[in-house]
Amino acid sequence: MGFSTDAIHAGQISDPVTGAVITPLYQTSTYEQDELGKHKGYEYGRTQNKTREAMEANIAALEKGKYGIAFASGLAATHALMSLVKSGDHIIVSDNVYGGTYRLFEQNLTAYGLEYSWVDTSNLSNIENAIKENTKMVFVETPTNPMLVLTDLKGVAVIAKKNDLLSVCDNTFMSPYFQNPLTFGIDIVLHSTTKYLNGHSDVIGGILITSNEKVHERIRYIQNAAGGVPAPFDCWLVLRATKTLAVRMKQHDENARAFANFLVNLGAAEKVIYPGLQNHPQHELAKEQMSGFGGMVSADFGSLEKAKKVLNNVKIFILAESLGGVESLISHPASMTHATVPKEEREKFGLTDGLVRFSVGIEDVEDLIEDVERAIG
Ligand SMILES: Cc1ncc(COP(=O)(O)O)c(C=O)c1O
Question: Where are the domains positioned within the chain?
């Protein structure tokens, strides 16, 4: 099936009572049992929910995976993922992942005996060099938030298989429309469904997708045992949103290409970062492993003062955390999404005080361009 056909039909279940075409919202915490020891396969809302199951199957199909396991946020999904390793294990992570991922790993899970190495995974030999006897997992985010650095997914999968490691890709920035890490041999895909998958800035959610039976079994167990499940209504909203993922992503991509070129031509930024620009150091890799370049653009305006001018004077771009919604958002990673990453750490990979991140929405791109042109003055 094509992507949009799957997006609209995969996992969808019509209402068995009325035939209602749209998967019902099973807003219930528990289920009536027929008699003691006999039920319909549904016992308790944390353990089973049909709206959630439909959303999980839908997103799994979009990622070309067998199983989706949903959580209440992207970070809850990341936390559940860490139940695949145990105290004493070592994990290799891309060095400029989302700041919350950094905080969870480095400032919380190290207390439970997990050891993390932060490496520039855009160079595969850095991964190989970081492998130790106790290494169990390699976790990459590509492109990264907000530096838009890419990692070669096929290369990661080969290294992981050779060394018996689990490979994970945070695919939030591309969405399954532009990149499918499982097809390159990656074991597990992670999404913050808060972003493009839901796309309307009204849900917080996360999901893990895999075709590996053992991984599925463990994560499914943890979903119930630790209980970080999403609300049925949030699943219903995400299921509604994935139907338009393809059309939204096409427009995000078209707008971001035009917007990135506008920023380059304007000349107000010292550096414009977008995988679709020919001067992006990994433009060729982007064309190989992604079918589009996405809606995220970063630009370094050289100083906090210059960045502030853009951040404070735009009118259509909304100054807010998050990304991937139909409305354009603008943010200052150093003080917002990545505030927990120490200054000397973030500056090592170019996340300076002058860096501004644009989540280019699907408004008329001429209006977005005019907005920034006017803000800069
Ligand atoms: C790339 C990426 N991964 C994971 C997350 C965490 O997701 P959530 O905010 O849904 O917990 C985010 C949030 O911004 C993100 O940008």
Answer: 3-242, 245-376
